[in-house]
Request: fold
Amino acid sequence: MLKQYLEAGKVVGTQGLRGELRVQPWCDSAAFLCRFKRLYWRAGEEEILVKSARVHKNLALLKLEGVDTIEQADQLRNRILFINREDCQLAEGEYFIQDLIGMQVMDADSGCYYGRLTDVFQTGANDVYQVTDQDGKNYLLPSIPEVVIARDIQAGVMKIRPMRGIFDED
Reply:
């Protein structure tokens, strides 16, 4: 089952004296996080309105409603911000990393089980998926159309055609 509220970033500090927060984005980028007008604490239990947002280096600087002093902002340090998946539209072929983690990785042709997707590395050219088998051994798999044939987020299954040498011991 897909989570309704997704972890989007962590408050790592304050900016200035008027309650602005420095947020380390856990999503695509600080610019992506700055697009949201509503964020949430505690996995959606408490809605927060964003009064203003801007990018500073690799951080998002957020001014939240009700946070008007540096003291109020400092009390929010290390808290996790969430987004509601309904508040954003992903393009065809784009996925939330949190939805990919834990997927079963199967061979598209033989149905052979390779393991579970345990991490996603964003390298720039293409993502690289870490697949961990039942013995705990990790394999790296490029997320390219020739290798990743299908992703069924609802079923939690990814079908692949691995390149030679990825799972072979030779």
About this structure: DSSP finds three helices and twelve strands in the chain. The two ends are 38 Å apart (CA to CA).
